[in-house]
Amino acid sequence: xxxxxxxxxxxxxxxxxxxxxxxxxxxxxxxxxxxxxxxxxxxxxxxxxxxxxxxxxxxxxxxxxxxxxxxxxxxxxxx
Length: 79
Hints:
By secondary structure, this protein is mainly α. The chain contains two helices and no strands. The model has no long low-confidence stretch (mean pLDDT 84).
């Protein structure tokens, strides 16, 4: 399998990988932004922020885009 990143037009994946259907009410461009935003926040909180269970995290303006993911990811870490 060749990984082409977020800008690839075509990609081959293994059959047993977790794939989901794109919701009909969002555009392809919007659906490609979702994993990029989520992974960006995950890397920021986990890798750079070294987030741990029990910590408090302040997320300003958690109403859209990456910040919505930030709230969910911080909560999943127990923060």
